[in-house]
Design goal:
Blueprint lengths: L2 H23 L10 H9 L3 H6 L3 E3 L2 E2 L10 E5 L29 H6 L3 H17 L4 E3 L22 H16 L4 E7 L12 E3 L2 H8 L1 H10 L3 E4 L3 E2 L2 E2 L4 H11 L5 E4 L8 H5 L14 H8 L5 H17 L16 H14 L1 E5 L12 E5 L24 H9 L4 E5 L9 H4 L5 H28 L2 E6 L21 H11 L3 E5 L16 E4 L7 H9 L13 E2 L6 H4 L12 H7 L19 E3 L8 H6 L4 E3 L10 E8 L3 E2 L4 E10 L5 E3 L2 E6 L10 E5 L2 E3 L4 E9 L5 E3 L4 E3 L4 E9 L2 E10 L1
Parallel strand pairs: 3-4, 4-5, 5-7, 6-8, 6-18, 7-10, 12-13, 12-14, 14-15, 15-16, 21-31
Antiparallel strand pairs: 1-2, 2-3, 8-9, 11-16, 17-19, 20-22, 22-27, 23-26, 24-25, 24-30, 28-29, 30-31
Helix pairs in contact: 2-12, 5-6, 5-13, 6-8, 13-18, 14-18, 16-17
């Protein structure tokens, strides 16, 4: 064979190999493509001004259609855990309606704690129904960024530190919404993993880490649920703003994954005209600074082709065709929150609550009508609002104390004490604009009041047979636009717990938080420890049902609870930007300020707050703690019940598997306890002799399973070998790492019950 012929054969092989690889990755075909022929006809009837007018917001939560052609405006519903109240067209001021009160659904980390795609589907169903009552087309959710840092201001909104768990829930949520006539808008694409300086930070991440950790939930929702919308994030990724990131929006999202819908910017997150529209952004929100007159001028000047405009309009109209507008005379005719959705909120809440520790004090026994001290501001504080950004004008919210009174009635005497001064939202303090002398004065006054409330709580605890301490964070502590400085319980709750323990050791601690807290004081001073989340309109009823034993707890941690913050990867490696916090892009919109929120990156200094170095690579969450053998307070996936489960007889359908096979894992699960309960068995993969570096183990399957007392089931789970591939940064493709693996089946990442070795060939 001649050299030229050999070269031609090789090039042909490589070319068709690339095509085959590309086709393999692009096997998904969106249902939105069915409208293209009809849309082409519509676009031909539109003038340039009408097209450009569709590419930016025309009110705070809508973008324009073309009335003369019967194309309705696109109406967005701010989510992702409840439909926002109606606002003035061009401000954040509410309209003051009486029928726009919605159901407050449990927030993201609570939903993730259910470990149930089925529950996520119901959650999406409830959100869609209330969105349609209000005449909305697209829900700005689910929020599915990976929980990279425990201090993240939106950890409570996001789902999990694990891409597989987040993916399964994202798909369930998205199906639930779109099966009920509304569109999802996956957010925030991509790598929006911090709130401090989110409007300026440039995330520096290697491609393998991005592909294997941070993008899978988005890819799964696009390819498995046919998600119609995506919201670009505020930050940069590897030098490009997300709203104009050609690699993210065009090459990955559209070309590789087959996404056919619309990309909307985060509010105020657009930074250019030409780059944004050419690199994949469809709609600038909430106004047209870049994709309005400036875009029209750019097209007329020849800087942007009208073909690009036509493509962006086509992508918007696909969603408009798939989601039929709600007629004006049918929208907003009844109260947004409805009983069916309230029931869903209750179910999510009951299945999300995590029992971390129980020395036998739970469930609460009321035979002798005990005196129970209920201590803590979170026993009575609502969590539907209170922070920056997402909030719900909820029809009602049952507090923990109200739930306890409802469920316990006269079977016990409940005595309440506030216990501590809560943190309340203060824009000036968050962004450093309050004079120090004023801050000092407030702190002195707060300390005096806190001392008084502490004393009242201790006095109440002395009178009681047991103490229900209901503390944790609140929505002002965990808030959009601001990461926490630490994970200690605010308002010196640790000090109060120690004072209470000195007079009454029978403490049940309930943490109402959406993110990790430091438990080094609380854990040893509590006979039971419960994580109750920001758990929605029915959160108080759900908590009470768990505490009194009407329902066995069944939630599992969607993140790791570290022994201390400094053990977590971004902090241990000192790669979480700690520099001076700037004004926030969203807060700038809310306050209508002219603060500098764009900024530019300066050099490669690792202390630069505008550089986010993801040098922990794939070792996020439990992957870090397991690989580095760092002990944790409670592991990823942990959660107790009021029953006991036995695992046995782990088996696989084969001993060796090829690259296109599926590993079928089966084992027996028995409820050998005294009550019905749900267990969440989890399957992790440990690679024994890999050819590339991997975390010690990774979650690859799970199953939420309900079993009655004494009942046993054979659990069967499938793991496609293709899901074990890695991203090769040299070939820019997914490749197999065919090696021996150990299947680890357990109740959490830290509680492995069964193991078995198989081989990938």
């Amino acid at each position: 064979m001649s050299y030229r012929l050999l070269t031609a054969v090789i090039l042909t092989f490589l070319f068709f190999g690339c095509i085959q690889q590309s086709k393999k990755e692009k096997s998904f075909t969106s249902s939105l493509l069915q409208y293209d022929a009809e849309i082409d006809g519509l676009i031909k009837q539109m003038n340039l001004e009408e097209k450009v007018n569709m590419l930016h917001g025309n009110t705070m939560f809508s973008s324009a259609g073309v009335e003369r052609l019967g194309i309705a405006d696109m109406k967005y519903a701010d989510g992702p855990f409840g439909i926002r109240e109606e606002l003035q067209p061009h401000s954040w001021a509410p309209l003051g309606w009486t029928n726009d009160s919605a159901t407050f659904f449990p927030t993201g980390s609570a939903l993730a704690a259910t470990w149930s795609p089925e529950i996520a589907y119901k959650f999406g169903t409830g959100m869609a129904r209330e969105a349609r009552i209000r005449g909305k087309d697209m829900i700005l959710g689910p929020a599915i960024n990976i929980q990279r840092i425990p201090t993240g201001g939106r950890t409570y909104e996001y789902l999990s530190e694990d891409p597989y768990l987040s993916s399964r829930l994202s798909v369930g949520y998205s199906h639930g919404v779109q099966d009920n006539d509304a569109a999802v808008c996956l957010k925030h694409f991509a790598l929006n993993n911090q709130e401090n300086n989110r409007g300026t930070v440039d995330v520096i991440v290697d491609e393998r880490t991005m592909r294997e950790i941070y993008l899978p939930p988005f890819k799964a929702a696009v390819q498995e649920a046919d998600a119609y919308g995506v919201m670009s994030a505020y930050n940069k990724v590897n030098g490009w703003w997300c709203a104009e990131n050609d690699m993210l929006l065009n090459k990955i999202l559209r070309d590789e994954w087959g996404f056919a819908g619309l990309v909307v910017s985060d509010w105020g997150g657009t930074h250019s005209t030409v780059e944004s529209v050419e690199h994949g952004l469809n709609v600038e929100m909430p106004e047209g600074t870049y994709l309005g007159q400036a875009l029209l001028d750019s097209v007329k000047a020849g800087a942007v082709s009208e073909d690009v405009i036509n493509q962006r309009v086509l992508e918007i109209l696909r969603v408009r065709k798939a989601i039929k507008p709600v007629p004006e005379d049918e929208a907003n005719q009844i109260m947004t929150s409805q009983p069916a959705q309230q029931k869903i909120a209750y179910e999510v809440a009951t299945k999300s609550i995590v029992l971390l520790k129980n020395d036998g004090i739970l469930p609460i026994k009321t035979e002798n009508k005990p005196v129970i001290a209920v201590i803590g501001d979170n026993a009575v504080r609502g969590m539907a609002t209170g922070g920056i950004g997402a909030g719900v004008k909820t029809l009602y919210e049952v507090s923990p104390l109200e739930g306890l009174k409802s469920r316990i009635g006269d079977q016990a005497e409940l005595i309440y004490a506030q216990g501590y001064v809560p943190v309340l939202l203060d824009y000036a303090r968050i962004f450093g604009n309050k004079p120090q002398e004023e801050v000092d004065k407030e702190e002195r006054e707060k300390a005096i009041l806190n001392k008084k409330l502490n004393a009242e709580a201790v006095a109440v605890a002395k009178k009681a047979e047991m103490v229900l301490f209901i503390g944790g964070d609140n929505r002002a502590v965990e808030t959009e636009a601001n990461d926490r400085e630490n994970i200690f319980l605010p308002s010196d709750q640790d000090g109060l717990i120690q004072k209470i323990a000195a007079v009454n050791p029978n403490i049940i601690t309930v943490l109402v938080s959406g993110a990790p807290n430091d438990l080094n004081v609380v854990q040893p001073n509590s006979k039971a420890l419960v994580l109750s989340w920001f758990n929605g309109s029915e959160g108080g009823n759900a908590l009470a049902d768990i505490l009194v034993g009407n329902i066995s707890p069944s939630g599992r941690l969607p993140f790791t609870l570290p022994k201390k913050l400094e053990d977590s990867p971004a902090y241990a490696l000192d790669n979480y930007p700690r520099g001076q916090k700037k004004g926030d892009v969203f807060v700038g919109l809310v306050e209508e300020t002219d603060s500098d929120i764009t900024g530019e990156n300066t050099g490669d200094n690792k202390n630069d707050p505008n550089k986010g170095y993801y040098s922990e690579d794939m070792l996020v969450g439990y992957r870090w703690f397991d690989t580095k053998q760092i002990p944790v307070m409670y592991p990823f996936g942990h959660g107790l019940t009021y029953s006991i489960f036995e695992y046995s007889a782990l088996n696989t359908d084969q001993e060796e598997y090829g690259a296109d096979d599926k590993i079928t894992v089966s084992f027996n699960l028995k409820n050998s306890g005294s009550v019905a309960a749900d267990e969440v068995p989890q399957v992790y993969i440990h690679r024994i002799n890999p050819s590339v570096e991997w975390p010690f183990k990774e979650l690859k399957a799970f199953s939420r399973t309900a079993l009655n007392q004494g009942e046993a089931k054979t659990i069967s789970l499938e793991i496609p070998v293709q899901s074990l591939r890695y991203w090769n940064e040299e070939t820019h493709s997914w490749e197999d790492d065919l090696c021996d693996i150990e299947l680890l089946v357990g109740a959490s990442a830290g509680d492995i019950k069964l193991t078995k070795k198989v081989s990938l060939k």
